[in-house]
Write a structure and sequence with these properties.
mainly alpha
Length: 244
């Protein structure tokens, strides 16, 4: 099946999948912005982060299933799940997970990066330099992000783990970029569903791109300035403690 599913045309299980994806995406957006705005290490930050991770894992799985149903690559949905999972485990490793889990996730990321570049180069030769509405330039951009994530995995594995600023940087950039995927997909990709009275383009672009600005700030602070003040003393949230 190659037609794009929409809420207006889908029925049955596909409709339920779309509604589920839309709902979990909204929850992820709300929780993500709460986590970003709250004091780092505080209660609202931890709880917002936990909800964000769960919601993004759910929406990533839903996206992968919808894409597979449409006969399209499901890389995007799996990458979302990979990104939030590795961001979460950077600060709270999964109990009982050995090194082989990190290796498997790294191989998955490298495989997606290579496949993404191949698809992008194919798109450059297509009319309009796009495939199914996705421009080749965006494919190159996303494939580069996946490649950087895979290289980060490799460096972590070779080093036998990471601590301090590098560990927090791994957590922060992956969480912020995951939020950017959610905000960009909703505010820019679904702009037509935003009521016209509040469809203010400058505000929409600010909301869509703000996670990238936050990402750059934290990379500057944590990696360049090595300022970890107030970021490593908070206790984990109860929901995380229950998993450890």
């Amino acid at each position: 099946m190659s037609d794009r599913l929409t809420l207006a045309t889908a029925t049955g299980l596909p409709l339920l999948a779309l509604v589920f994806h839309f709902a979990t995406g909204l929850v992820a957006l709300a929780a993500g912005f709460v986590a970003v705005a709250a004091r780092k290490g505080g209660t609202w930050h931890r709880r917002g982060g936990v909800v964000f991770v769960y919601a993004m894992l759910a929406t990533g799985i839903a996206v992968a299933g919808i894409s597979a149903y449409e006969g399209k690559p499901f890389t995007g949905g799996v990458f979302i799940a990979y990104l939030v999972l590795t961001a979460w485990t950077a600060v709270r490793p999964l109990p009982g997970a050995g090194r082989w889990v990190d290796v498997a996730l790294m191989v998955l990321a490298f495989t997606f990066a290579v496949g993404g570049y191949a698809r992008a180069f194919t798109a450059f030769g297509m009319p309009g330099s796009q495939i199914d509405g996705a421009p080749a330039e965006m494919m190159v951009f996303m494939s580069t992000i996946i490649l950087l994530a895979a290289i980060g995995d490799l460096r972590m594995i070779l080093a036998g783990g990471i601590q301090g600023g590098r560990r927090l940087a791994r957590h922060l950039w992956r969480m912020c970029f995951s939020l950017f995927i959610a905000s960009g997909s909703f505010f820019l990709g679904q702009m037509k569903f935003i009521p016209e009275p509040v469809r203010i383009l400058p505000l929409i672009f600010v909301l869509a791109l703000s996670p990238l600005v936050v990402l750059l700030y934290w990379m500057w602070r944590v990696r360049l300035q090595e300022n970890l003040r107030g970021m490593m003393t908070a206790k984990p949230a109860p929901a995380l403690e229950a998993l450890s």
